[in-house]
Amino acid sequence: MSAAAPSAPTTAPDALAATLAGRGHAVLAPADFVRFAGASVAELDVLRPSWDDLPPDAHLRDGGRYRRRRHASFVVDGAELRLVPQRAHWQPVEYNALHGGLERWFEPIDAAVLALPAWRRILLAFARLASRLKGTQPWFVEAHQFRIDTTDGIGRPTPEGAHRDGVDFVAVVLVGREGIKGGETRVFAADGPEGLRFTMLEPWTTLVLDDARVIHESTPIQPLEGYGHRDTLVLTYRAGSFQEPAAA
Prior knowledge:
Blueprint: H1 16-23, E1 25-28, H2 30-37, H3 41-45, E2 67-77, E3 80-83, H4 111-114, H5 117-134, E4 139-149, E5 169-178, E6 180-182, E7 184-189, E8 195-199, E9 206-210, E10 214-218, E11 221-223, E12 229-239
Antiparallel strand pairs: 1-9, 2-3, 2-4, 4-12, 5-9, 5-12, 6-11, 7-8, 7-10
């Protein structure tokens, strides 16, 4: 990891809603994410070994072998967190030029992970934030466990390039990175020149985005020696419904 990697200005949890309302993106430092989630570091760290058991992503259209993932969908309504039956992840081509229009089925997130107290606390915390910004309502949530590795010599966290996800809010939580360089996060205003570049280095550093107002990407990773990887938890929150293909 490079000592020269740029760092991002971070936001305190009690200022998170105002920062998102003002500029459309915010970064939580690890200690502040712990406070925001209402979980201890020890409780969060119990989640981390599950990233060692992610199956390969069979849908990469660039032919790569560098991504592993699991996926699950939920509805959050107030304090209720409901897992919905496993469903395809789908985005229109307007939001994902590489994989849009494709129903992508992934292996579900392990039930033992979903049963951990920290999992529930994280998902509910972001739902409360979303409701504070856009009104109390049910939130349709997709959770993705990603491991990007250097099996191909280079790993691409966002092979689709700079993009929006077609939701209301996105949270990108760094779970860990080992033996790599690169992986710079870039956030740009969707309708102007404002931008932010930084590298998430410490576990539980978290980027939160108002998806309607910004686009984002992460640069490729390369190994420092032989092999390395970058693990993230990506959560998307959408009002009204999940993204689904248009009815025929």
